[in-house]
Amino acid sequence: MDTLNVERASNGVVTLTLNRPEKKNAINATMFNELLAVFREVNDSSSDRVLVVTGQGDAFCSGADLGDRGNDTRHPLARLHWVADIALALHRIPKPVIAKVNGVAAGAGLNLALGCDLIVTSDTARFSEIFARRGLTIDFGGSWLLPRLIGMHRAKELAFFADILSAKEAAEMGLVNRVVPGAELDAFVADWANRLAAGPPLALAMTKRLLTNSFSMTMDEALEAEGMAQTVNSGTQDAPEAIRAFLEKREPKFQGR
Fold first, then answer.
1. pLDDT, tens digit, for every residue of 42-78?
2. How far apart, in Å, are the Cα atoms of 15 and each of 56, 118, 173?
3. Domains of the chain (ranges, CATH numbers)
4. Are 141 and 113 in contact (CB under 8 A)?
């Protein structure tokens, strides 16, 4: 790929690295297309268990590259629908997705991170919903993600003022899961990714869906969905394997079936 590096480990951990460090990994038309292809590939793959998204160099992603749209001649609305498809492709990945934020995450770059299930950031990273400073409205799913993560009033604060947050401020707001020293970022994320890759794929996928859908469900509906998910789990080979491993005092070997 021209703008992404994709590495697959034998345990099912996929690492996707945005690779335009000279532009602080700003997303141009080529990268948008390549992100869509990778998201769909990970979604469909039976061997991919976890996706880690990060950036090359000293930035995660500075947002959309407003000066580089390549040969994209689409009407602005059609282009936004295309970008929306990419955000949805990330949202629909059934496997756990970790954002490893090693530097600035702004605009669509921040919302790319927020669209992941977990965010681990270095202590020197910075965050901004930069859109208002560019005369633009929030996009790439930010209007849906932010209120669910930090509440409506704080979401409006970030979107209206487009302030730049430190990693510490982002953690205090609830935007990220963990802040670690930069030298420890790779090891911390690798540990999380490896633990998730060793987990039960179907159970994790259904847990992810239950949590994601919870905001649009009543308690009755959530309990019904939980029951259906547990019924599916009970019919897999992974559930009895987990019980055998517990009784035999060993780590389970989950197959996802």
1. 999 999 999 999 999 999 999 999 877 666 667 777 7
2. 12, 14, 27
3. 4-197 (3.90.226.10), 201-247 (1.10.12)
4. no
